[in-house]
Amino acid sequence: MGAEVILHRRPEDWPKRLHEYLAEASRLSFAWGRHDCVHLAARWLERIGYAEPLAGLPSWKSELSAWRAMRARGGFEQAVADHVARLGCSAVPPLAGQRGDIALVAIPQGRKQALGIIDGVGVACAAPVGLGRVPVTAILRAWRT
Any idea what the CATH number is for the domain that residue 53 is in? Predict the structure, then answer.
């Protein structure tokens, strides 16, 4: 038997929650293990009712420890895909992601990837100060929340 998957439905006021959450997150500075791309997405999932979205993941305090944690789970993309599937998020085609969904995006600077939240303008991602926006054309994978 595989891991139990819990189906989830967004609360009716999710658009308001998204707006408020992104406004709050835009005032934060990037910090590994506190306000990085994974924590940005996890806190959004908490806001819409997912219980303990980081459960089962190790903690990290630096880029190196984050990289090691994800590498131990098959790399960042695989770790994210496996974890959000366990949470009950359904994969959707990259350009089928909608406002409020989470997305894995390509970051051209440094050939990296990041996790963000589709917000109607693009994909909101944790940035050195506040949030940055990546165009939806940079989405590699997306999940319905």
Answer: 3.90.1720
